[in-house]
Amino acid sequence: xxxxxxxxxxxxxxxxxxxxxxxxxxxxxxxxxxxxxxxxxxxxxxxxxxxxxxxxxxxxxxxxxxxxxxxxxxxxxxxxxxxxxxxxxxxxxxxxxxxxxxxxxxxxxxxxxxxxxxxxxxxxxxxxxxxxxxxxxxxxxxxxxxxxxxxxxxxxxxxxxxxxxxxxxxxxxxxxxxxxxxxxxxxxxxxxxxxxxxxxxxxxxxxxxxxxxxxxxxxxxxxxxxxxxxxxxxxxxxxxxxxxxxxxxxxxxxxxxxxxxxxxxxxxxxxxxxxxxxxxxxxxxxxxxxxxxxxxxxxxxxxxxxxxxxxxxxxxxxxxxxxx
Length: 324
Known about the structure:
- By secondary structure, the protein is of the alpha+beta class.
- The protein is 25% helix and 25% strand.
- It has one domain (1-39, 74-324).
- It contains six helices and 15 strands.
- Strands 7-15-11-8-10-9 form a six-stranded mixed sheet, covered by helices on one side.
- Strand 13 and strand 14 (300-313) form a beta hairpin.
């Protein structure tokens, strides 16, 4: 079974929405943050902060308190991916027995191979987007991380330092976020930092950390024995089919810790309200920009993907972090 390469555009036309959804919205972080569609250029995130003053109840009206407006700018990066394949390259491979005879061919046989290629391309782009959502930096980023500023760059060390050495924290700072012996202290510190600032009162409060930190946390909880038990709750709870990517709820706190690829290897941990983290995409336009066609000029199959992604946080002061 095969399809004519000249009709690939029709194939993509029919499947374009699914392909672009997998590419742009397939990144894991899209499930955990606020996604803003239709962002074609710099986008303002308006903020309002209110000060409230109680007064002694009496006759009269004495206005006090202010509503202060400010804004932060989400600037998306404009990205493209271009790839090409030569059908003749398959002739010498093990697919040769499944290809049509003849020197000239405008088909890629079998068609399942090409579908797998497209699916894998979409998944790889989504994975790279997931990392750049955190690690992107237009000033110092390299490779796929240089086209927009991720959360790390936008937060820029601001907010609540959960690795402080005074006040409610332990006397010595953490030296690792991937060491099981320090993982429980990491959990306590993030919960304390968020709780002391009233952020654990919200249902969408969570902590984002790398998968390397997640492994350390799981090991620490298991090693806790009767203190913590092996009940890694929050969806795990001993369920062999649970999605570990959804994280776990730190024992006794109801605060969810969610592992993300973008923080793996960074030695950074961030926590706050999910509704404080924004990703901007040009959703409607992006779904029209996944193209595959057969070029008769050079006898190659070509792929062009175009999309926009950007990140921003509305209130950096409401984000707790451990940055090593």
